Amino acid sequence: MPSANVKALTESTQTKLKDAVNQLEPFLNNNALLQLTGEDSGEDAQLFYRGLLSDLRHLLVFSEVSVEKLGVLLRRPNFDTDYAERVLYEVYHQCVSAYFYPKNECYSEDGRYAYTGQDAIRFRYKPVRPARDIVLSLSKIFEELRDELAYYENDYMTQRRMQGQK
Q1: Model pTM score
Q2: What mean pLDDT is reported for the chain?
């Protein structure tokens, strides 16, 4: 991939991840397990929100670390394309994967809805409005990142392996 394209993708990725961090951080700072469960203190609700908060905290940390790495790359006087591609690979496999395949599986993406204009995210348990809103607003960011960084899903490592065999 040409260096100019990688630099533009690095800048775009950093901007999108900053946006995700700016949405996630206030949500996590202002919402605790007891606030989310509210009147519904059943075991299913407790498990759901505990898992959701855990997954969102992991996503926040992965995103913050990636924003820092991308920022270091962009501040260097000479842009390091190889390192940038490695970081973009990490963004795909840590941040994008953490969003679409959360460890606690509190929500999942149903591809059948992706082309209908409806939200493709389906929740395992009906969440309260703030929890639903944060997950759905993040979906737009991470869908764009997934599309833009698709090369780093498989093709990047395949290309690196082939270069190593020469």
Answers
A1: 0.89
A2: 89
